[in-house]
């Protein structure tokens, strides 16, 4: 049961916050503080955080290096805007441009992933002089008017009105759909053939926007190499590739620093968007593009809050910590152990259809036992049971799917991975239908 202070806060929330701002849990919790991979609620209960504020607390809660950088910068100046030279912004842009893999890169900072994708769409349509966009089915790119209009997930797209003409392509989901039965090579071949056929029915296209691993869609992904194969079709036509790295960036997948690198045979994307983890909770988003594309805008543009000194100081400290402590390597090592453990748990439950992902980005898809039918009730029940057991998870999924999203801070230890897996195992067992097997 929620404590009285939280109950009062929940009532106040409902009185002033829109109904469509959803909250997790029947009795929503107020998180008051955190340390490392743990957070505490207003009642003093501790939770192992396996969702990190929607993949945003990338390194750790209350990381001393980041809090110190924020405090020191706040003591000098908090805000100035992009109208003035900004040393922390230039320094972080230099590092990101180098890490991006994009030649002659330019970096524009925003305050969120939504705004980053919105900017990328503006750049692509301005550069190509067309408003036609290719996007992936089951995708999610943010909540602005333009970002919603390229989102291929109806649960997160509240309007069909759009400033863009969007066409949706196969390939973002390997395990479902008309090509699921094919081999990886056959899957890629079929998706490329579909893309070529689609392009034969439309006019000039500005860009393809795609998440290397679909976040809100339930951590689904195509076989490695799909987007490289797409690029072989798109590049000769001048069509740009926007890689939405808001959730996959900064080494979370373990094997790569960016998600696009699993599709690198045809080179880096034309435009890369990022956000979430780089700020470790501070509001940082941004776009990286080669100069030809970034500089195509012919009108003035600024960002009042994007690239603010205080967020840039936090980003610099956070990125330095990530690189110096090889958190990408930790995501690969600990994430590999966690994925193996979760697959073993999933194999023993009739509720689990698939455990997928890489590094510390894992999706567990739940179904009604004996079927491929989505089981959102089970996902909600596991979320509640895990919370009772001291573990915070996320949810996701698209068309006829429901999945648990597991994305701890990248400093997760082996012991914490085992702790979280054990709590999730108990949560699954606690909702297992009577008569079903779960050894």
In short:
By secondary structure, the protein is of the alpha/beta class.
**Overall pLDDT confidence:** 94
Q: Sheet bearing the most strands, described?
A: 7 strands, mixed
The helix content, as a percent range, equals: 25-40%
**What order do the SSEs take from the amino end to the carboxyl end, as H and E?**
HEEEHHHEHEHEHEHEEEHHHEEHEEEH
Estimated radius of gyration: 21 Å
Number of strands: 15
- Return residue spans where pLDDT drops below 50 for at least 5 consecutive residues: none
Structural class: alpha/beta
The multimeric state of the shown protein is single chain
Basic shape: globular
- N-end to C-end Cα span: 31 Å
Instruction: State which percent range the strand residues make up.
Output: 15-25%
Order the strands across the largest sheet as they lie in space.
4-10-9-8-7-5-6
Q: How many helices?
A: 13
Plain-language structure description:
The protein has 439 residues and is α/β, with parallel strands linked by helices. Helices cover 37% and strands 16% of the residues. It contains 13 helices and 15 strands. The strands form 3 sheets. The chain has a 7-stranded mixed β-sheet, sandwiched between helices. A 4-stranded mixed β-sheet has the order 1-2-3-13. A 4-stranded antiparallel β-sheet has the order 11-12-15-14, covered by helices on one side. Strand 14 (394-396) and strand 15 (403-406) form a beta hairpin. Helix 4 (87-100) crosses helix 10 and helix 11 (327-347) packs parallel to helix 13. It is globular, with a radius of gyration of 21 Å.
